[in-house]
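Model the whole thing, not chain by chain.
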Amino acid sequence: MRLILFGPPGAGKGTQAKLLETELGVPQLSTGDIFRSAIKNQTPLGVKVKAIMDSGKLVGDDVVVALVAETIAKSQFANGYILDGFPRTVAQAEAFDALLAQRGEKVDAFIALEVPDEELISRLTNRGQGREDDTPDKIKVRLGVYKQETAPVLAYYKAKNQAKIIDGLGSVEDIQQRILDAVNN
Ligand code: AMP
């Protein structure tokens, strides 16, 4: 099962991806988590992406696509994964399609979580994970980047008839059920 969980920052992708790991039996693959861990461990990748990540802008497509290519080749992702935070640009979506085609694989489901801006801002402001990019000015940058660069990814999967849109408001359990229903239909 190769699932893409899509949505703006604060939509609940990370929370849902973690819960779905048990339900679907495949691991979460969060590009943001990989970058944060690289920064924490001061690896060459971490050093490269720190400033851009702290700014709320997007890491370059080449860097992200290379990271995803390397990661999905690992044995723990052989049976699939729940992608959270990738693809975030149309160029990444196209590169991912090419990568999957090379591997003789395909995306099984693309699920978009829909949440109004006011709710996103309130969730991100209250997230309290101490993330460098959860400050009011960075939240504004990230929502702007989402609208400009990431929202077109939804249109890309819609055009391929692969997108399923889910209401991202409600309890964590209700949203999880909606995702499972969408995956199974
Ligand atoms: P996230 O944890 O998904 O909110 O990602 C946090 C930050 O990591 C983003 O604001 C970007 O700077 C970077 N990042 C994560 N995934 C990607 C991606 N697919 N493309 C570009 N930048 C990314």
